[in-house]
TrEMBL record:
GO biological process: methylation
SUPFAM superfamilies associated with the record: S-adenosyl-L-methionine-dependent methyltransferases
Keyword terms, alphabetized: Methyltransferase, Transferase
GO MF annotations, alphabetized: methyltransferase activity
Pfam families reported in the protein's UniProt record: Methyltransf_23
Methyltransferase in keyword set: yes
Name listed for the protein in its UniProt record: Methyltransferase domain-containing protein
Length: 111
């Protein structure tokens, strides 16, 4: 069990992102922290620029992995990255190619 798991630009390399997050959650200690980033793209089932990616999620698809009816994580913070700049509020007319989430394993988590 881990206090923190950092997963930068890996979720797009797995076919089932929800299963990936469930497995990460099982590896975290209660209240453990996940830091995860992914490049934004055209979405599930759409072509993407890398032959090694199963998909590149849209911003909306990425956000819905962690918001709404999410029972795995809480205290969810979303950030946007452009170059070396990481911001928690999107600026108008700025394209952010990467999304980052920082969240805690929800308590109590049951399998």
């Amino acid at each position: 069990m881990f206090d923190t798991i950092i997963s930068f630009e890996t979720i797009e390399h797995v076919p089932n992102d929800k299963e990936f997050l469930t497995k990460i959650c099982k590896l975290l200690k209660p209240g453990g922290t996940l830091v995860l980033s992914t490049p934004f793209g055209q979405g599930r089932g759409k072509p993407c620029g890398s032959p090694f990616h199963y998909h590149q999620l849209t911003e909306h698809e990425f956000l819905t992995l962690f918001t709404g009816k999410n029972e795995l994580f809480e205290n969810i913070e979303i950030f946007y990255q452009q170059g070396v700049s990481i911001e928690n509020v999107k600026r108008p007319k700025v394209r952010y190619p990467l999304g980052i989430t920082v969240c805690k394993k929800a308590l109590p988590y049951t399998e």
